[in-house]
Amino acid sequence: MTRPNISAALRTLLALTATTLLSGLAFAQSYPAKTVTLVVPNPPGGFVDASARLLSEPLSRVMGQSVVVDNKGGGSGNVAYSLVARANPDGYTLLTSYSAYHVGNPSLSPKLPWAQKDFVPVALVTVATNVIAVHPSVPANNLGEFISYVRANPGKLSYASQGNGSLSHIGTEMFKMQTHTSMVHIPYRGSGPAVQDVLSGQVQVFITTPPSVMGHVQAGKLKGLAIAGKSRHPGLPSVPTTAEAGLKGFELEAWVGIFAPAGTPAEVIAKLSTQIKQAVELPETKSRADHAGIELRYLPPTALDDLVKRETEFWSKTIKAAGITAD
């Protein structure tokens, strides 16, 4: 039997493929050889920043290299996303991605300076439900009283968000639609400045993740009316869920995942994801997460990719129904 001839072009292609695979494996074996940067699309303070800082220390120990946090707030996350999308795809510049930006921004603006395809998923790291928090001046001690007050005083109260298209913005608009209430939206550049104005009473309402307001609720500086999740939060055990408070069907969950620029070698993604898993499973990481009011939840790249696809479809429908637009 005569063996088929292999063309010179095919032999060249096979050689290049083998060289690329070996090169990728060699690069992954030496990775990381220098400092890794976690780019955060928010200013310091809040759930996303807290998640990055929660991960950076244990990941540094697992990797044997420094992992630093670089806050690049602004543009509803677009500043940071654009920076990482243009970064060298070598695993040293990573995006600490916030769910509302990652799955919401593409529906908010058709002319984004980045696209989801510019990133590859590495690992889901944390999730957080949301708490409905209000300034003590609001004459309501539970969720039912709050809804009644807002209905009787349409447009009197204002609510804070981390910016147009953020989860706090979209989630509060969902709350308004479900409860048939009206409040004025005041967008901020991240949770930190939003919390300051809610504490001062300049803005009265903030639906946000627990790390932003948990300490203030515990200290009595803000009133926690309800947890928008299936179960109570361990850091706020006396705050009922929305269902317990009489508002069934209103739940909000934010997540933070690590993404790399498209083109990052698959071997590096696999190694990095494994290292992140090891970091989040350390007992001291869980202890710090519990103290901060953050739930650790690791997912590998394929599962995170599926999550992005599901939530992109959901948020697209929600944004259109609420008529939410970008700045």
Q: How many beta-strand elements? A: 11
Kindly report the average pLDDT value.
Answer: 91
Rg, Å, rounded: 22 Å
CATH class of the largest domain: Alpha Beta
Low-confidence stretches: none
Q: How many domains in all?
A: 2
What would your notes on this structure say?
- The protein has helices at 8-30, 47-63, 78-85, 99-108, 143-152, 167-179, 191-200, 210-218, 266-280, 283-292, 301-322, and strands at residues 36-40, 67-71, 93-98, 119-129, 131-134, 158-161, 184-187, 205-208, 223-227, 253-261, 295-299.
- Strand 1, helix 2 and strand 2 (67-71) form a beta-alpha-beta unit.
- The chain is an alpha/beta fold.
- The protein folds into two domains: 12-127 and 255-322, D-Maltodextrin-Binding Protein, domain 2; 131-227, Periplasmic binding protein-like II (D-Maltodextrin-Binding Protein, domain 2).
Please sum up the structure shown.
The chain has 327 residues and is of the alpha/beta class.
Structure characteristics:
D-Maltodextrin-Binding Protein, domain 2, six-stranded mixed beta sheet, alpha/beta, 11 helices, 327 residues, single chain
Write the layout of secondary structure elements.
Blueprint: H1 8-30, E1 36-40, H2 47-63, E2 67-71, H3 78-85, E3 93-98, H4 99-108, E4 119-129, E5 131-134, H5 143-152, E6 158-161, H6 167-179, E7 184-187, H7 191-200, E8 205-208, H8 210-218, E9 223-227, E10 253-261, H9 266-280, H10 283-292, E11 295-299, H11 301-322
Parallel strand pairs: 1-2, 1-3, 6-7, 6-8
Antiparallel strand pairs: 3-10, 4-10, 4-11, 5-8, 5-9
Helix pairs in contact: 1-9, 2-9, 2-10, 4-11
